[in-house]
Amino acid sequence: MERIGAVLHQQLVCYRLQLRVLSTSLFDGLLAVFFPLMFATAALLVYRIKGDPEAMQYAGLGAAIMGMWTCQGVIASSLLTRERWAGTLELLVAAPTPLSRVLVPITMALSTIGLYCVVATILWERWVFGLRLEIASWPLFVLSVLMAALTLALFGFFLSVTAVRYRTSWSLGAALEYPGWLLCGFLVPVELLPDWIHPLSWSIPTTWAMAAVRESANGGSPWADLARCAAIGLAYAVLASYLGRRLVDSARRNATLALT
Amino acid sequence: MSAVQAVDLKRTFRTRTGLLRRTAKDVEAVRGVSFRIEPGELFGLLGPNGAGKTTTIKMLITLLLPTGGSASVLGHDVVDDVREVRRRIGYVFGGDRGLYERLSAYDNLRYFSELYGVAPREQKARIGELLELVGLTGRERERVEGYSRGMRQRLHIARGLLHDPAVLFLDEPSIGIDPVGARELRATIGLLKEQGKTVLLTTHYMFEADELCDRIAVIRSGEIVAEGTPTELKQRVPGGRVLEVETYGVPEATVASVGEVGGVRSVAMEERGQQQVLILQCEPDAEVTQGVLARLGGVRVGRVVSREPTLEDAYVELVTRA
Amino acid sequence: MTSLRIFFIGGLMSYRAMFGWLNPWILVPSLVVSPICQILLFAFIGRSAGVGDDEFYVIGNALNYAAIPCLFAMGATIGGEREGHTLGVVLTTPARRIPLFLGRALPVIVNGWGVAMVGVLAGVLLLDVHVPGPAWPTILLVVMVASASCTGLGLAMGAVALRVRETAVLGNVVFCVLLVFCGVNIAVADLPGWMGAVGGWLPMTHAIEAARLLADGSTLGDVGGLVLRELGVGALYTVAGLSLLRWFEDESRRKATLDRN
Which of B94, B121, C3, C231 is most deeply packed, by most CB within 10 A? Predict the structure, then answer.
């Protein structure tokens, strides 16, 4: 029992400190949402021309999760690279705590950033466009958003493990931003995209999370989408932890952890 | 039981060059290094850049697998008993990386105390103690990005000591620190020794090794070429005394002729501003000063100093010997 | 003659020295893949919302994306001097300032033009866009004008960046402002009045409108007024940027403001 308490304490402290690393100042925080917010603004301006409230609800919901994709996904995909540049990756690996327990609080901190982006976007939509989102079921809506944040953190972590070996992987995060906006059905329905792209959309957990968010806001049942989202997110988590272990092993064999 | 033991430790790297036709080349970074460090000892690993110091340390702290030989820390094998080794060692490297810039010193230490499993109740006292030890008390709430190099380095040491490890690995901790900072750092390392820690220190500053280390191993191109106490190493210089002669505008030919004086083994010239200092390695009992001054003839001569060989003389001798 | 060499050769060299993106791993994702994605995104948003046609979004976003090299590369060639501590060295040379800084603009303009044209071509290949043959030369010209006037803004931004230091942040903010205010995805007439008024004083706005008209069959004569206004706006920012640089240099000689870190 005491052991569980100790682990929980450790996770909580690490979460708080990691959140502090990710969000240093109010200025940085505002800036992080600024970019997706301006794109959302441009998209909402396009949708507004027809003056259809249903279309505005569609775009408003999409813009909120789009902000999450950018803030959270982009930070997550460069996570290990940043640790590597800072010289702290080696220390994390050399600590006696298993790497997975180092990473869980980081994932949670990332999800928190994602949730902040959603809230910021929804407030912006209300203030600037006077757009009040109609949410049929708040509990389901919140659950869907949480699922979106969690699976996106896992997906981002998977990308981060894959990318850490490449020196220019910081540009990968930025390069993934736009394709995600196109693929995940934020502002453009997936069905509108060419058929051959659909599998690509379906392989990203955020696509399903987006669908679940829309369902719960519009009064439908989000459970099927949530289940798919969770399953895919979990698959990425398993893959990421396997790749992570391989990465550490190969680093011990080939000395690739330090960046000097 | 030794605190650290390395037996014929080897490490080969495979580097690939070329984009299309990849040709692999094996580079032997460490080729059969053996040594023992007893508990409480401060052991120095001395060598030029690229000699294999860091590679050796990385194998000992479990971050790198040896390609040959074996090593153990406090009886735990560094390849198989990874977690046991990691619990008992601290690792500090030089330079200003390895800290979370955006966190305060206190938060950096808190984060790593969690990762090293320091009990929550003890953390506060432990961190306070370490900040005191490395002289950062009062600055701990500031973000690390505003720290000087010396402060970062001392914070690194505090980080390495959080879990009170029995063995500490310090990899070139004094690199790039100003003389005052370096002196403070040496004082801190001295304190660790008094506390009974086993320390493995790598450096290429001679006086640092001379002042701190109980025993030194000199490593060159991945091999240990000499091992012993600083005094023993100094005695290995084949020539009892060193004569230094300050000159102004000495011609090459004259330098060569100085080398022919009886009792002078070798002569080297070092430029120091406008001076050229001749460094002569002499036979133990030979009286060479008069002969040398005679050869210098009309050259303007400054101070002439006869001194004991330093560790640096021994070191230069060891690492330059073909 | 010296000034000419400073303009052409010096400009190209400092562009290569300062613009850290000249590496295929960064260049292709950021200057080829990203603009195409932005074009596709808004073209599909337009289809989904039932507003406008593909050509509208292709031209708007292709030109808008030219702003990325214009702002970032120009900002980096000037603002980067400060990070590299080379500004002091550059300013102690006797080189004349106008060719020195304008020379840096030339490779940037070509870069911006290339990015925009890649966007237009991608739109033609991937989407339902037809640009009539005779319109191409005039569009090439208008895109060049847009790129030049945007580089003027980049010069002004680079000058500001010498003092505020956050070149990348500044670049992103300005890019987003252009995206929303310049009629990139919404015709200026459909924007709220004050936003349209702001757009009139920004580079890109007139060039985008002119390029759309050309693609629809207008002649260069029809859009001459727009092109001139675009050039005028660009010149305004260029002059502002050069004066700022001048002022910073003078002020720095008095108070050493540019050497501080």
Answer: B94
Cα B204 to Cα A166, B58, B168, B207, distances in angstroms: 32, 17, 18, 9
Which positions in chain B touch A88 (Cβ < 8 Å)?
A: 97-100
**All domains in chain B, ordered by first residue:** 4-235 (3.40.50.300), 241-320 (3.30.70.260)
With 0.80 as the threshold, say if the pTM is over it.
Answer: no
- Domain spans, chain C: 2-255
* H or E segment and range at residue B228: strand B223-228
Question: Is C172 in CB contact (< 8 Å) with chain A?
Answer: yes
Q: How high does pLDDT run on average in chain B?
A: 84
Contacts of A33 in chain C (CB under 8 A): none
Tokens 């990005």 map to which residue?
Answer: B145
Assigned domain for A165 exists: yes
Spatial CA neighbour of C46 closest among C37, C34, C55, C35: C55
Compare all CA atoms of chain B with the CA of A97 and give the residue at the minimum distance. Answer: B115
Q: What are residue A130's phi and psi, to 5 degrees?
A: 60, 30
Residue B21 has pLDDT above 70, yes or no: no
Tell whether the model's pLDDT for residue A260 goes beyond 60.
no
Q: Smallest CA–CA separation between C30 and chain A, in Å?
A: 6
d(CA A33, CA C98): 38
Question: Cβ separation of B98 and A87 shorter than 8 Å?
Answer: yes
The pLDDT tens digits for C65-91 are: 999 888 888 887 777 666 665 666 666
Residue C261's pLDDT is what? 41
- Residues facing residue B242 across a β-bridge: B281, B307
Q: Provide, as residue numbers in chain C, all residues whose Cβ is less than 8 Å from the Cβ of A41.
A: 180
Question: Which strands, in side-by-side order, build the sheet including B167-171?
Answer: B89-93, B167-171, B198-203, B42-46, B215-220, B223-228
B264 neighbors B258 (Cβ within 8 angstroms):
yes
Question: In whole angstroms, what is the distance from residue A132 CA to residue B249 CA?
Answer: 87
Domain that holds residue A85: 2-254
**Is residue A260 situated within a structural domain?**
no
Residue A26 CB neighbours (<10 A): 8
Q: How many domains does chain A have?
A: 1
Q: Establish if B35 touches chain A: CB-CB under 8 angstroms.
A: no
Q: For residue B69, what is the enclosing H or E element?
A: strand B68-73
Residues A1 and C201: their CA atoms lie apart, in Å, by: 67
Q: Is position A142 within any domain?
A: yes
- Other Cβ atoms closer than 10 A to A145: 22
Q: How far is A21 from chain B, CA to nearest CA, in Å?
A: 6
Check if the beta carbon of residue B71 is closer than 8 Å to that of residue B7: yes
Residue of B nearest to A11 (CA): B114
Residue C222 or A258, more confident: C222
Give the model confidence (pLDDT) of C29-51 as tens digits: 778 888 999 999 999 999 998 88
Place of tokens 């660009």: C234
Q: Which residues contact A29 (CB under 8 A, 6 or more apart)?
A: A23, A116
Which member of C49, C180, C184 has the closest CB to residue A47?
Answer: C49
Residue C4 has pLDDT above 80, yes or no: no
**3-state SS, residue B165:** coil
The separation between CA B41 and the C-alpha centre of its own chain, rounded to angstroms, equals: 15
**CA distance to B173, B204, B212, per residue, from B191 (Å):** 15, 21, 10
Distance between CA A122 and CA A130 in Å, rounded?
Answer: 10
3 state SS of C19: coil
Residue A259 forms part of a structural domain = no
Pairing outcome for strands B241-248 and B300-307: antiparallel
- Please determine, for residue A259, whether its predicted confidence score (pLDDT) is greater than 50: no
Instruction: Please name the residue of chain B whose CA is at the shortest distance from the CA of residue A89.
Output: B98
Q: Return d(Cα B212, Cα B245) in angstroms, integer.
A: 30
How far is Cα B112 from Cα A88, in angstroms, rounded to an integer? Answer: 10
- Whether residue C254 contacts residue C106, with contact meaning beta carbons closer than 8 Å, is answered with no
